[in-house]
Amino acid sequence: MNTIPQEFQITKPLIQDTYLVDGELKKWTGKTTEVYSTISSTENYAPTLLGSIPFMGETEAIEVAESAQKAFNNGQGLWPTMKVVDRIKCMEHFVTQMKTTRTEVVKLLMWEIGKTLGDSEKEFDRTVEYINDTIESYKELNSRSAHFSKVQGINAMVRRGPLGVVLCLGPYNYPLNETFTLLIPALIMGNPVIFKPAKHGVLLISPLLEAFKSSFPKGVISIVYGRGREIASPIMRSGMVDILALIGNSKSAIALQDQHPNKNRLRLVLGLEAKNPAIILPDADLDLAIQECIAGSLSFNGQRCTALKIIYVHENIAAEFNKRFAEKVDALVFGNPWEKGVSLTPLPETEKPAYIQELIDDATSKGAKVINAKGGEHSENFIFPAVLFPINKEMRVYHEEQFGPVVPIITFKDIQEPLNDMAESNYGQQVSLFGKNIKTIAPLIDTLVNLVCRVNLNSSCQRGPDVFPFTGRKDSAFGTLSIEDALRSFSIRTFVASKDNAYNNEILQELLNSKESNFINTDYIL
Ligand code: G3H
């Protein structure tokens, strides 16, 4: 179709016919799954064939688990015992190679998940920056630990060490960035990683396979393809996984944990669902609140775990807020990811428009109205965001994480109402609070910080910047991610201690001087 710029056209399908195991890109000759984009390449709508990926099963699952376990080798492997400086060199090699794949990865991000060109570029660049920042943070962590402390007659060198094999599963909405925010810290801390790309956003990993293969020792990173049931389940059942690192939904997280034979040995690093509310107080700056709520609820079509998924508006300002908010939603431009000025784009999940329609039908059958003119308009791969008002607790959209283009609005008279709802909710990631009077805001902040893990004042919810802790209460997360926190989440404190006497001290001194040990050394990495 001539409206697709030439550089973004799909000229031939990408056949991913290898997988990464034991340091080799092994040929796959078995069953494959075709990968389609919901974006059409032709005048008359038809999904576009992007390529195919291996459909792997239990045999390959066990093959990669054994390879990863061998790379860890009960802590004796090359990778877990390697000097920090050498692990950093491997990571630097990887990031240098990765940078050369930007054009290809960005193009696939647009086709596979429908992310706009600008946001796809941002996802790539943010990931490169995250890797560089992780390297710097690890150097600092290393320098802080590079000394002996003497306490009660004991000399000790305390560091952080790897835990073992990590199974890493990322989400489709940030198939590169969020996956790498797990995979990179896990690797750099000395853990071998098995990575299965998300259900959408899988081919975009192909340009990176060579970089992974050439940057790390064999077995340190394995990349497999297929359905969670067929591949992740047998890996968990094998008992060879020490950390389950997953950003996605809690049902799969629970199902996978349940399959592990030694649950107490399994560490968890999870980013799960959320239902972040916006609370608009009567004295809020409405222009600002509307602008932030549009971005918060509808950037990337609402497919963000941090998206605003319900808006509480004080009843005194609801009429004005709703009118202006609905107009702004209708003014958003829908189009293909590379088109200038688009903010709404095709949904990668074919079943999503029907699901959003179900939520709309359910809410309207229970008294809500679609208050924007374009709300609920269907096209082949999209449903225009519907603003639903007024919402009540009988409706599915009140409880379910919509993860798509529908914005429920509810009114409140007393601030205790949204606070009670948040306390009752299964989720506790973030909130956006809009208002000005500090006499009202101050006690609210003091409560809200105990209900969620980030209170965004007159600002939409978001994960970044990545130096800030990203976590949640209740069913929204397990563990904390940030550049620094992730290094901690994927490691454990471990140390060498020795009674302070001449005999021991001489040995320690010799260990330090000889640099024979990779653990006992005081080298600074600048
Ligand atoms: O899907 C959840 C992501 O962590 C959201 O990240 O707030 O940067 O879009 P973001």
TrEMBL record:
PROSITE patterns found in the cross-reference section: ALDEHYDE_DEHYDR_CYS
Xref: Pfam families: Aldedh
Keyword Oxidoreductase: yes
GO MF annotation terms: oxidoreductase activity, acting on the aldehyde or oxo group of donors, NAD or NADP as acceptor
Key word Ligase present: no
Keywords: Oxidoreductase
Domain of life of the native organism: Bacteria
Ranges where the Aldehyde dehydrogenase domain occurs: 38-491
Transmembrane annotation, as ranges: none
PANTHER family: SUCCINATE-SEMIALDEHYDE DEHYDROGENASE, MITOCHONDRIAL (PTHR43353)
Family that this chain belongs to: Belongs to the aldehyde dehydrogenase family.
Record's protein name: NADP-dependent glyceraldehyde-3-phosphate dehydrogenase
Organism in which the protein naturally occurs: Flavobacterium laiguense
